[in-house]
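Researcher: Re-running this chain for the archive, since the previous output was lost when a drive failed. Same request as before.
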Amino acid sequence: MLKVGIVGFGFMGRMHYACWRRLGDAQIVAVCDVNPAVFEKGAASAGNIQGAADDVDFAGVEVYSDFEKMLSSANLDAVSIALPTFLHADFSIKALEAGVNVLCEKPMALTRLNATG
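Model: Regenerated structure tokens:
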């Protein structure tokens, strides 16, 4: 079973959540967002794709506000990066350095310099 974390739980994070939940060989074990309001019942984000508006069941899911803590303690196999674009490269690199596979929203970085340091 693939243990998955999601960082960023706005509209696209919720889309990733819905998609990961449909896979039989993946389990969402951790979600990270700095905004505690996204974890409240009935919280939702507006977007242009159906499927992210449903209530989320956090039973069995660890909730984090600190990405590095999630990486160090959640024992993840993979992480979905669903953050604002300017954060993609830094968070992807941190996850990869921690040995965690990354699925990152596009684009990976705003410039080539961002992606290569």
